[in-house]
Design a protein that fits this description.
Length: about 290
């Protein structure tokens, strides 16, 4: 089931002014809006039925009927999440409130990301991971942290993978990619210039690309062959990626675990082979031998 409210919120800034007025009305009055016909919704928002349909298409629905059915499904969840949104972090919050609010916002982001994931798309991405010669990972800033997490996970399994910290190295990595490799791009905004240039280079080399990104129309989404959508419920005090990073890591964990299950015996052998004994345990063992 597609997550309507998340898609509306995430796509809002990329909508036209008239489409945005519809989105704002739906976000502000979901229970009332879900009972309206397309003509009534157009009248309420001073737009037209054709504009409503364009907005539905923009956020990934075939039409207003599919959009409305998904909206009905989400009303109960919306009530719960709306209460949490009203509990925004303020400068007067103590540590106890910060713990509760940040944890809840991260939980909401994970739940919304789960609702955005398409099982068929995930299975196709898994097939690409399995047959790829090398996994090439891309990301800037906080998204690079998620890319490096994927690198460490697949490295332990003996799956050839590559990640570079600076953009010039990532770009060379993309220029050298082949159609036997797989590019996995992490970009919450979908607008990161450096990542887009790397994707263009991979497209020229016919390298398949998976994008872990927001569920909005963006250059990153358009350049990717497959899209695994994330959601974020960021705090007003956001000074860096928080729940967006959690969502990215969650998708990587899902893809990684699916890969382990698909090649279970090999991966179990790799876990044993690549296990690194902790120093304290090694010292204790040496002491016992003496």
């Amino acid at each position: 089931m597609k997550n309507v409210l998340t898609r509306l919120r995430e796509s809002r800034e990329s909508l036209s002014n008239t489409e945005r007025s519809i989105a704002d009305y739906l976000l502000d009055h979901p229970e009332e809006a879900v009972r309206l016909s397309i003509y009534e919704l157009a009248e309420k928002t001073f737009t037209s039925p054709s504009t409503v349909i364009r907005m539905c298409h923009h956020i990934g629905f075939k039409g207003y009927r599919e959009f409305r059915q998904s909206m009905i499904y989400e009303i109960a969840l919306y009530k719960h999440n709306k209460e949490d949104e009203q509990k925004a972090i303020t400068h007067t919050d103590g540590i106890d409130n910060i713990i509760k609010k940040i944890t809840r916002k991260n939980i909401i982001a994970l739940e919304e990301t789960r609702n955005l994931l398409d099982v068929e798309t995930l299975q196709e991405c898994l097939a690409l991971v399995r047959k790829s010669r090398t996994i090439l990972l891309f990301g800037m800033g906080a998204s690079l942290c998620a890319a490096r997490d994927a690198y460490l996970k697949f490295l332990r399994l003996g799956k050839p993978c590559m990640v570079n910290d600076d953009w010039h190295s990532q770009y060379l990595q993309a220029r050298n990619a082949t159609n036997e490799d797989l590019g996995i791009v992490v970009s919450y905004s979908g607008e990161t210039h450096e990542v887009i240039e790397c994707m263009k280079a991979m497209r020229e080399n016919h390298t398949p690309i998976i994008a872990i990104t927001r569920c909005v129309t963006s250059p990153v989404a358009e350049l990717a062959d497959y899209r695994l959508y994330t959601s974020a419920n960021e705090s007003t005090f956001r000074s860096g990626a928080m729940s967006s990073r959690i969502s990215q890591l969650n998708i990587i964990d899902i893809l990684y675990t699916a890969f382990v299950n698909s090649e279970y015996e090999h991966c179990v052998e790799q876990f044993s082979k690549t296990h690194i004994r902790k120093q304290a345990a090694a010292c204790k063992h040496a002491a016992n031998e003496e």
